[in-house]
Amino acid sequence: MTTDTDPVLAEDPITGEEIELPADVEVGEIIDSPVTGTELEVISLDPVTLEEAPELEEDWGE
Amino acid sequence: MRVGILYSRIRRDEKLLLEELRDRGHDVEKIDVRKQRFGLESTTADVADLDIVVDRCLSTSRSLYATKFLDSYGVPVVNSPETGDVCADKAKNSLALAEADVPTPATEVAFTKEAAMEAIEEFGYPCVLKPIVGSWGRLMAKIDTRSAAEAILEHKETLGHYEHKVFYVQEFVDKPGRDIRVVAVDGEPVAAMTRSSEHWLTNAAKGGTTESFDLDDRALELVERASEAVGGGMLGVDLMEVGGEGSGEYTVHEVNHTVEFKALTEASDVDVPARVVDWLETKAEAFAADGGDAGGDSDGDTNAADDSTDADEVVA
């Protein structure tokens, strides 16, 4: 049985390794791959799918 | 209330905001702008019945167009597209501050490298060359010599996006190794911090160290006036102390419109997301009372709920 505080497991899309995400992970959230440090984007939650996040573009910022 | 969040990346800042909104029982509609279309009459985004939409787009162009379209449907959106338009462009930002008599560094814009070189030579060395659109200290150049100026101008003209052919030249302000970032909502400071570095760029994104800062009366006044000058909203007002640390004299070099606050949350004792949500609640109430025109420039004569149509009907 899982609870909403359990970490979520997902596959790193670059290395194929299983990585642990926080329990409250959101669709659209950007996380750093603990394996490569690459920025990954959470694409879906059921199942949890990750993709390499888009490169920063020139007009990105605050 | 029902709150829309316009985004294409959920960073720590957005997570903090989402957490606070949900903790208070608000209904949150996340709107990933990459997946939506915005037509002249309506949008594929589910904006019906939203009490307020918060623009958290990281991309300036997405922010400007998405908020403009939402505003045209009568959807209450913060920050307003007008504020975004002024803040996104450093030249417009400088002009707005100057027109409001807010002290801001001397600035010139030139459109050719020859004219830019004349401006640089008149400012003298060092001076600063900035892209008109950009953040986090990217592509900022402190120019120390004429030969450096020539090289940078040629690179910009040859390699740059067309916006890099608008040369924004600014006096170098000899700040005391730090500048001040204030997050403010409609001119009222939420929290402030200094960003310090040995490097001339002190941005937190460039690794500057942060520390909480107490605003004096002059700084408070300037934050309020700078906010008003760009049209209000939730803003990051950047000040530098002229005349040294603690001199009490400031220049406002920039006002940012999709402000990050995670560094400020860590540097200060203030619960920034909570204060921001307090403000959003007040703002949403004011929008409702004013028929969707709470201090913005929206016509407020249409209602998103009435105008929203099926995705198929959207003019792409």
UniProtKB/TrEMBL annotation, chain A:
Question: What name appears for this protein in its UniProt entry?
Answer: Lysine biosynthesis protein LysW
Q: Which InterPro entries match?
A: LysW (IPR005906)
Identify the PANTHER family for this entry: LYSINE BIOSYNTHESIS PROTEIN-RELATED, LYSINE BIOSYNTHESIS PROTEIN-RELATED-RELATED
Q: Superkingdom, according to UniProt?
A: Archaea
Organism, scientific name: Halorubrum halodurans
